[in-house]
Amino acid sequence: MRVLGHDALTGLDWRRPGLTRDEAASTPGIWQGDRLVAAPAILPATGAGPAAQPIRGLGHFRAMLFSH
After folding, report:
1. Which helix (H) or strand (E) holds 49?
2. Which residues are paired to 2 by β-bridges?
3. 2, 28 in Cβ contact below 8 A?
């Protein structure tokens, strides 16, 4: 697992969860080598793969990203 990064956002509906481009790029991605297997914070859960459920709101996420 590593961050998605900006290149992986191509083809993903990263605006849907209300994130900025940089915020979406900093969310986790599940990778198999160079292939993105899942972007659980961006893609909705289908029941067939990894999913993520936020434990805090978007405001907390933004505060964590920009606190340093």
Report:
1. none
2. 29
3. yes
User: Could you tell me the two tokens for 30?
Assistant: 């599940």
pLDDT of 2-34, one tens digit each?
A: 999 999 999 888 998 888 999 899 988 889 999
Find where tokens 């909705």 sit: 44
What residue type is assigned to position 39 of the chain? A
Order of strands across the sheet with 2-3? 2-3, 28-32, 35-38
In angstroms, the Cα distances linking 21 to 7, 33, 46, 47, 49 are 11, 23, 23, 26, 24
**CA 26 remoteness from chain centre:** 7
Tokens 């209300």, residue located: 18
